[in-house]
Amino acid sequence: MDRMSALDSGFYFAESENTPMHVGSVAVFDGPAPSYGDVVRLLLSKLPLVPRYRQRVREVPLQLGRPMWVDDPHFQILYHVRHTAVPSPGNDEQLRNLAGRVLGQRLDMAKPLWELWLVEGLAEGRWAIISKVHHCMVDGVAGTDLMQLMFDLDPEATHDEPRDWTPRRDPSSVTLVAGAVAEAAAQPMRTLTSLPSVGTAVRGVRGFTESGRTLAQTLPSLAKQAATPTARSLNGPIGPHRRWAWTDGQFEEFKAVRTALGGTVNDVVLTAITRGFRDLLQGRGELSSERLVVRSMVPVSVRSEKQRGSLDNQVSCVFVDLPVGDPDPVSRLQAVRGQMDEYKRAMQAVDVPSIISMGDFVAPTLLSMGVRSAVRAGQMWCQAVTTNVPGPRVPLYVLGRRMCTAHAYVPIAGGTRCSIGIFSYLNRMTFGINADFDAFPDVDVLSGGIRRGIEELLEYARADQATPDVAQPKGRRSARAGAR
């Protein structure tokens, strides 16, 4: 038996009728499509690499402890692997609509928390895989590692035959309670004994002082955020249905903007998304001020190299103000870059894994109540979730078929009615937009605006290279006037 971490428990308790908390993806492949039986046999041969896929969640009676992962004695892979098709020749819109319906439905919380759909009928002989995995089971970065479950680097790769599997005995309620009581007594002591020794702490005084100075410098920015007008019309209750849209760009486009205007590829990505939200609000007549921002939660992986491949979540987050009211794309990029640089300094100063582990001190019942109350009550602090998951830059194959593209699906919850999952593969970066059905009838304006944001930044990058500004460093020019 494995006990959930406090963070994983939070994702589990956040699940409700209108807020399914799974992450997912849609991957499109060159044809011909494999048979359903071949896909099932492939997964059966790979499941020993990821035992969690045969486990379900058991809650401890009276919530005396965090939930447990236990083997599912009734595991049946045919339940988790589904087979469907779109009317041939299916186009991107038909696939998006199908994926939106599939990804919008909750997983069965009484079974292992994943599904995979084989989709046939796409144009040009292509086919697709829609996958769903609950967020309490895996975060985005670990999810990239889990591609080994069925993806190959070699189209000629061979696979082992499926092996028999015997589930471990399902624990009794008494066993769960006894384990929870023992864990409650031992976990705080383990956390405390893992703290640095006195000698190490003395040697780290100088570093701690520097960390404190960095954090002190960050506080004025937090105060500024509290006083900044946000697009609160994007917050609100979440219904049971979803709209899903996507767009994409070439990786070289983002690199060209980064080289010409400064910042990182992620800064350029967030700036393009800013244009998408600007177009959305402008179309709604809600672009009320040049100071207006859309505040986005940006998950940050704190997983070390030694932890790669582990199945628990190792994430923190930062909140970035996307300057949708600013009419100048270069100025927007500078604003995003400045915030991200500041967050990088702050994240280096704070022992984020230790902060996350402090959740181990929270009584499980209070954790459950707190998470569920927060999700139901909603919040007005942030208006979007934006997460960037780096994928492989080499081709991937399933049963010898090459993956063409992949789009990420990120859940929405707690009054934040829109999320954007960014995924990079080969030379392409894709944007999967998940939004509440009733709140975002204009979700295509957002996706189209992101594409326009990429194109306008490219225009400025090319102009910058053609006529370099010798008066100021790249990426620090004065803002050009005029809305784009």
From TrEMBL:
A GO molecular-function descriptor: diacylglycerol O-acyltransferase activity
Chain ranges passing through the membrane: none
Acyltransferase is among the record's keywords: yes
Annotated signal peptide: none
EC number from the UniProt entry: 2.3.1.20
InterPro entries: Acyl_transf_WS/DGAT (IPR014292), CAT-like_dom_sf (IPR023213), O-acyltransferase_WSD1-like (IPR045034), O-acyltransferase_WSD1_C (IPR009721), O-acyltransferase_WSD1_N (IPR004255)
Name of this chain's protein: Diacylglycerol O-acyltransferase
Species, as recorded: Blastococcus saxobsidens (strain DD2)
